[in-house]
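Recall that a protein's primary structure is simply its ordered list of amino acids. Everything else, from secondary elements to tertiary packing, is in principle encoded there. The following example makes that idea concrete.
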Amino acid sequence: MRNPMDEIREDIRRLHLAHARGDIKEKTFQRLLAQRTMDLYRALVEGALAPGERILKEHHVVEAHTRLTESVLREPEQTATSLFLTQRRLLRVRSSIRPGQPITADHRDSTIVDELPLAKIRSLRNGFRIRPGEITAGLVMATVALVFWQWLEVTGVILLGLGLLGALHGLLMPTRWVEISTEPTLKEPFRILAPTKKSGKELIRMIRMNLKTEEKAILAKV
């Protein structure tokens, strides 16, 4: 019997081929790719669940990373992070998304699966930081526009404007998350990225409900 994950991987591969041939539009491709990618991560997690354990909530986020060594015009590498909440634990799946490369959810895209037992969660804390990659990319674009101003003409004005807007966006619109504090403290803490998304809010609500239940259980024993 064929592995369900292999079937989804094949669907993703076919989507990439169809997109490369121009058979499907970009918007449709991105929508279908996102759906099948979430299906793949879900299948990966379901294979690790214990008998009777089931997924209650899930939350999916993609982050882009623009490095100084890469062109600001090149599509950046991304990191996909999916969180799955069960009755017992929070599972995290992380993969590297490389432009043009199908998601495989294994060693080929550096997929890592780790877990956090709910009993170890102590609190939730809000966190934020400015977007250094976005600021750097914007400043590089603006610098290129100024250096080659006399040759770029109208293009230089557009490039300068986009660069400055990108830098301001990275400065004024910081990345926000909710960090999960645990006991003992983890070397790499679990974070709920994009906490204002509907799925993020629901995940946070359920974790807080579990914290209250744990607190009541502890008080009942005292």
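The chain is about 45% helix and 25% strand. Residues 66-74 have pLDDT under 50 and may be disordered.
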